[in-house]
Amino acid sequence: MILVNIESIPGKEISEVLGLVKGEVVQSKHVGKDFMAGMKTLVGGEIKGYTEMMKEARIIATDRMIEEAKSLGADAIVGVKYGSSAVMQGASEILAYGTAVKLK
Asked: Can you name the CATH fold of 2-103?
């Protein structure tokens, strides 16, 4: 599956637009890591546990978007974008979305 965040794929021609595809996940860390993250906010710096959590969530959301595109018979997803929001303390939602297309 080809994924691009632009509206076309250089050297390829889109033959059919299949529609919007998306993948989403709400991810959290266990209470021990959440506690340590809270301690880190006192001294500053990167909160690696949350960085890892967001990376894992992006991978899951992307995989779900790809699966939805495959179910439509897509060859590629163009205009891929990501969004995130805090659902509650220690949990974030990641949304991956784009347009599934067939290529010539």
From this structure: Translation Initiation Factor IF3 (3.30.110)
